[in-house]
Amino acid sequence: MACLVARTGRELQRCIPYRYKNGIDGTVGNELEFLVITSQKGNAFMFPKGGWELDESVEEAASRESLEEAGVLGNVECQLGQWSFMSKSHDTYYEGYMFPLFVKEQLDLWPEKNVRQRIWMTAAKAREACQHWWMKEALDILVERLTSEQKQKDEEV
Asked: Strand 93-106 vs strand 72-76: parallel, antiparallel, or unpaired?
C-alpha cells in the first residue's frame, strides 16, 4: 500500500514520467507520451519534483515524488543530468537532478490529486508546456535516448 502523505525533502530532483501509447487494438506502440502536472496553484505545467530525505536515495525520492504529485508508479531509469537553476520564490540557485520514469501504473487516487491535474502529451506539446529551459533540455535528452534505443532495437530485428 502506498503512503498517502507527502513528505518534504532536501535538495531537488525531477522525474519525467513517460510511456508508450497503446494502439487502437490495445497493443503497445512506439509513440511516446509524457506526463506533466500542474503546479499547486494551477498556473504552470511541470514534471514531478521534490527533495530527497536522508533515508532514501535520489532515485527513490524521484519515484516517491512521482507517486505523490502525479499518481504514477514505475521504474526510475539512468539520470539525464544535473542542472543549476534560480528559484523564483527564494532568489537562490538550486542543483536539480533529472530522471526518466517509465510508468507501469497510473493510480486513481494519490496524495496531491486535489491540488494538481495530470496530462499526458506528446514530446512537442510537453516541451511547449514546460516553462523552464532546463526541463526542455532534459526532455530533449530523454527523447533522443529513447529514440536511439528504439532504432537500435529495430536494427537488431
From this structure: antiparallel
Among 125, 140, 138, 124, which residue's Cα sits nearest to residue 48? Answer: 138
| DSSP character at residue 63 | H
CA 32-84-94 angle, 5° bins: 110
Q: Which whole-number Å values give the CA distances from 15 to 3, 25, 91, 157, in the listed order?
A: 19, 29, 23, 31
Q: What angle do CA 134, 109, 128 make, to 5 degrees?
A: 25
Q: Is 126 helix (H, G, I), strand (E, B) or coil?
A: helix
Residues paired with residue 85 on neighbouring β-strands, in sequence order:
94
What is the full per-residue pLDDT of the chain (157 aa) written as tens digits? 444 444 444 457 789 999 998 766 666 677 899 999 998 877 789 999 877 777 888 888 889 999 999 999 999 999 999 888 777 666 777 778 899 999 999 999 999 999 999 999 999 999 999 888 888 999 999 999 999 988 888 788 7
CA 114 – CA 112 distance, rounded (Å): 5
Q: Which domains does the chain have, with CATH numbers?
A: 10-156 (3.90.79.10)
Partners of 83 in the β-ladder: 96
pTM for this one? 0.84
